[in-house]
Design goal:
433 residues, alpha/beta, Aminopeptidase, Aminopeptidase i, Domain 2, 2 domains, five-stranded mixed beta sheet, 21 strands
Length: 433
C-alpha cells in the first residue's frame, strides 16, 4: 500500500496543479522536460534520432510525447497510450459578468455532461487561458495561463424552505437562469463586465484593455484527499480522465531505450465529441505518426501501423452498491481490484477479443489484477477516444480504465491501489517488443 499510496498522492498533486486542459499540458511538459524530452514545433522541420525523447503540443491543450524506439519501426511499430485532457464542467461566457439586483453574476455554458448539482455550494475557482494583445500587429498576441487558487465564485443552493420538493424531486437547475455564479456585490461606478475584466487583468498582470478573449473553466478548489479507514480511496475533481493521463505519463517516464516507439497521445475536446483540430477525431495523431515515419516509404509506413497497438485509457464505472440495478451482474467492476477492460459489441469501446487478450497478458506480465466491464444491455453506453483513434489511424486498440464512482461529478472518487496497478500495466505495454 505504501508504494500505491505514494503514486496516488502524486496523482492528486498532478490534478490539483492542473485545473484546466491548458494546465494539464503544462504539468506534463514540466515532467517531460525534467527527463530531457525536447519540444518539437509543428511549423519546423524535424530531425529525430534513435532513442530521442520528444513532445509536440497543439494549441496548448493537446500533447503527444514519444521516445523513438531503437528497433526497426516497420517491424516494431508504435506503442500508444491515448487519453484526454478535458473534463466535463462549466465554461465562462465571453460577456459573462452581468447584474441581477445588487449582485454581479458570471454566466456559464455547460461543457460536456457534468452532474450539475455537484457544482452547487462549493468553493469554486476559475482557470484556463487568456488571450492578450502585446503589440500593434494582428499576430501580436500572447496566451498566459490563469489559475485562481482561492475560491472566487459560488453557485448557492436555494433554501429548502423555498424548494420543499428538492429531496424528492432532485435538484434541477435551469442552465440559463440558475447556473450563473455569484461573483460580487455591484460597485455603482463600474459596470459588471469591467469589474470582472479588472479581476482577470490584475491576476495576470496586464491592463484590462489588453484582454481580447479567454477560455476559462470552473473547478472545485478543494484539494484532492484520501478517505476510508486505511486511506483505501481517493477523491478529487477531474479523475476522469487525468488519472489516465498521469498513469500513462508515469509509464513513459519509467521506460528507457525501448525497442518500439513509445508514445502518449492526450487530446482535448473528448467530452464534446473530439471533432476539432486538436481532438482525437482530428489530424493530430495521424500527422505525428506520419512525421515520425517520414523516412519510410509508403508501404513501410503502413507496415509500421499494422505492427502497432493503442491502449485507450479512460475511467470505468465502478460498481455502486446503492444502485445495483444499473449494472450487469456478471460484469461488475470493483474499486481497488485492478483496471477494467471495457467491452462493447457495438464498438462504443474499441476492444476486440485480440486486444482484450493482449491486455490480459500485459496484466499477467506485470502481476496486476484485471476486470472486464460490459455496460448493462438496456442502458445506452458511452464512448471513448479508443474507437475514434483506432479508426483514424488503422491501429488495433483496447479500451481500459480504472473503476470510478461519481463519474462527471465536481468531485469523483476511486481506489488508492488502482492507480499503481494501471501504471504497471502500461509499463508492461511500453516494454513489449
Amino acid at each position: 500500500m505504501n508504494k500505491a499510496k505514494k503514486q496516488a498522492q502524486r496523482l492528486l498533486n498532478f490534478i490539483d496543479s492542473s485545473p484546466s486542459p491548458w494546465h494539464v499540458t503544462t504539468s506534463i511538459i514540466t515532467e517531460l522536460e525534467e527527463k530531457k524530452f525536447q519540444c518539437l514545433d509543428e511549423r519546423e522541420a524535424w530531425h529525430l534520432a534513435p532513442g530521442g525523447r520528444y513532445y509536440v503540443v497543439r494549441d496548448g491543450s493537446s500533447i503527444i510525447g514519444f521516445i523513438v524506439g531503437s528497433g526497426d519501426l516497420t517491424q516494431h511499430g508504435f506503442r500508444i497510450i491515448a487519453a484526454h485532457t478535458d473534463s466535463p464542467g462549466l465554461r465562462v461566457k465571453p460577456h459573462a459578468a452581468h447584474t441581477c439586483g445588487p449582485m454581479i453574476r458570471l454566466g456559464v455554458e455547460v461543457y460536456g455532461g457534468p452532474i450539475l448539482a455537484t457544482f452547487t455550494d462549493r468553493d469554486l475557482g476559475l482557470a484556463g487561458r487568456v488571450v492578450i494583445k502585446t503589440g500593434s500587429a494582428v499576430t501580436d498576441i500572447d496566451t498566459p495561463l490563469i489559475h485562481f487558487k482561492k475560491p472566487l465564485v459560488r453557485i448557492p443552493n436555494m433554501a429548502i424552505h423555498m424548494n420543499k420538493e428538492v429531496n424528492e424531486a432532485g435538484l434541477k437547475l435551469d442552465r440559463q437562469n440558475e447556473l450563473p455564479m455569484m461573483l460580487s456585490v455591484l460597485q455603482e461606478d463600474l459596470p459588471a463586465q469591467q469589474q470582472f475584466l479588472a479581476i482577470i487583468a490584475h491576476e495576470i498582470g496586464v491592463e484590462a484593455d489588453a484582454i481580447l478573449s479567454w477560455e476559462l473553466q470552473v473547478f472545485d478548489t478543494q484539494p484532492g484527499s484520501f478517505f476510508g479507514p486505511d486511506d483505501q480511496f481517493i477523491a478529487n475533481g477531474q479523475l476522469d480522465n487525468l488519472a489516465s493521463c498521469h498513469a500513462g505519463l508515469c509509464a513513459l517516464l519509467d521506460v528507457d531505450n525501448p525497442i518500439a516507439t513509445n508514445m502518449i497521445a492526450y487530446f482535448d475536446h473528448e467530452e464534446v465529441g473530439s471533432r476539432s483540430c486538436k481532438g482525437a477525431g482530428g489530424s493530430f495523431l495521424p500527422d505525428i505518426l506520419e512525421r515520425i515515419s517520414i523516412n519510410l516509404d509508403r508501404e513501410s509506413q503502413k507496415r509500421a501501423l499494422s505492427n502497432s497497438f493503442i491502449l485507450s485509457a479512460d475511467m470505468a464505472h465502478a460498481y455502486h452498491p446503492n444502485y445495483p440495478k444499473f449494472y450487469d451482474n456478471e460484469h461488475q467492476v470493483v474499486i481497488n481490484a485492478g483496471p477494467a477492460i471495457k467491452i462493447n459489441a457495438n464498438q462504443r469501446y474499441s476492444s476486440d477479443s485480440i486486444s482484450e487478450a493482449l491486455f490480459v497478458r500485459l496484466c499477467e506480465e506485470a502481476d496486476v489484477p484485471y476486470q472486464k466491464y460490459v455496460h448493462r444491455s438496456n442502458l445506452p453506453c458511452g464512448g471513448t477516444i479508443g474507437a475514434i483513434t483506432a479508426a483514424k489511424v488503422g491501429i488495433r486498440s483496447v479500451d481500459v480504465g480504472n473503476p470510478l464512482w461519481s463519474m462527471h461529478s465536481a468531485r469523483e472518487s476511486a481506489g488508492t491501489l488502482d492507480h499503481d496497478y494501471m501504471i504497471r500495466a502500461m509499463i508492461a505495454l511500453f516494454r513489449m517488443n
